[in-house]
Specification:
The chain is built from two helices and 30 strands. By secondary structure, it is mostly beta strands. 30% of the residues are buried. The mean pLDDT is 91.
Length: 433
Amino acid sequence: MLTSLFTGISGLNANGVALSVIGDNIANANTPGFKGSRANFGDILSQTLGGASAMQVGRGTMIVDIQKLFTQGTLESTSNPLDLAIDGDGFFIVKQTNGPTYYTRAGQFRLDKNGYVVDPNGYRLQAYQMDQSGNLTGTISDVHLAGLMSNPSATTNINMQVNLDSRDDTKTWSFTSGSDLPDSSSYNYSNAITVYDSLGNSHLVYTYFVKTSTANQWEAHVIYDDGTNPNQPNYTEIDFDTATAGTQPIQLQFNSNGTLQSITPDTSTQANAVLFDFSAWGATNPQNITLNFADSTQYGSPNAIVFQTQDGYSTGNLIGVTVDQNGVMSGVFTNGQVKKVAQVVLSKFVAAPNLTKVGKNLFLESYSSGGPIYGAPGTVGVGTVYSNSLEASNVDLAEEFVRMIAAQRGYQANVRVITTTDNMLNDLMSIVR
């Protein structure tokens, strides 16, 4: 009879632990990346009574283990591009400075004062590093964005599509190098485009179009500031035929239907590229820039630039960060460039439920979990990464409430076993009286 008291006590202890686990799950229902747990019960066997027909008497119940449930949580959208969520079995890797390596599903990352990407605990996110060209190096280290810049790129090609009005009168080109640009009476139409030298300095390049007396022929005169006068601009014209006396322009010959027939010289080729001298600014000299007038027309409509572009850009400072589903982290710069800077590395474990919880949404590797397997998102089964997202807790409140009711009823029933046994003992003692 006395064993029933201890059996009831075991039921109280086990259901009390189960209620603690349920309470922890409910308390973390709004914790990003939280993985709920479940208390697993097992019976306690005390002894075997009898001979051939043995009877086994149990001594109650116990918590065999508390199982971590690594089911996928719902992904929720956020406004922070460094909020990351994993859809799959992987873990983010974060490292304490001069400390251990942790694993987490909570992707609430941000920049610290030193420019490192860190979690709310200040631990640094680990990622594959990339070189200046955006190629993976294979090295796993901290993500450091402080002082990140986009190097300048010199202009090597200009594409210009222009319509020149066939109705215009002919003009006589007149220009002398110096501080003044040509007078409007000496050209029909002009256009300017910004190009960049090897140091990222910007320069305006002017193109002046002049209709000649030859049928359907136009001249294109290219002028820029060569920087030889530090106090004021010194505009000079490109000579496209140095073997001929005087400055020779580009000749655009159109067909009678308004389409471009020929360009002399064809400056869209490297052999006839325009040679600019930006050495006054310390840049590479000469700077070869091809000038392509393809698809230009001579129609009976106003002079206009239909389309123009150039491929150079200046130095850029970091203004934003993006992360794609492959975990590639790219910097967005003020010069309009997007540069790959790192790739988030994920880890997975053969027995993830056996990882050791250390609080703050962090796990440590244990002997029972096995070692980590590293991989980029989308490889080796680690899952994919979503930016501007957080994984919600995988706790199902409805399920937890049902478990709580069951644990509560179990606790009450075991209390009743104890009180019933106590009453029976009282009855036994009253016989002595």
